[in-house]
Description:
By secondary structure, the chain is α+β, with helices and mostly antiparallel strands. The protein folds into two domains: 6-88, no CATH class; 102-145. It has five helices and five strands, in the order ααββαβββαα. It has helices spanning 6-14, 22-26, 48-54, 102-122, 125-145; strands at residues 29-34, 41-46, 60-66, 72-78, 83-88. A three-stranded antiparallel beta sheet has the order 3-4-5, with no helix packed on it. Strand 4 (72-78) and strand 5 (83-88) form a beta hairpin. Helix 4 runs antiparallel to helix 5. The model has no long low-confidence stretch (mean pLDDT 85).
Amino acid sequence: MYQIDDEIKEIMESHGIRLKSRLDALQLKTVVIDCPTCHAKTRLAFDPVQVASKISGKGISNVIVSLPCKHVIVAHVDKEVKIRGLLEIEQGINVSSEPLDVRLLREQVHALENLHAQLVKEGTTDMQFKVFGELARIRKVINGIE
């Protein structure tokens, strides 16, 4: 990023010309924090109007912040733009997610129960055992959700 030479800044200031930073122009409220991981100092700038509109009452909001040191944190910010806490986000763990449809799982349990009953009538013991194991697994998943 381009910055005016310090000597030129001094000359400007001696003539009553003060350069405003971009943050001054936006009238942001700034807070200096230490990165919880590497302890690098960083200045965070918040728009107090936006913070006030997003945080109701005297509540606290959790804001995800990408720091210049490449760490990502959650800053707990109150309505007065005070940092109430920092929490490091671990980025080295890959996670996948999927929506769980309990209704679909129950339909599968019902279908497996019907199949198990047919296998009992047929006397197919090996298959009964496999289907019963799958039934137990799905029921455990459902119990873990509910």
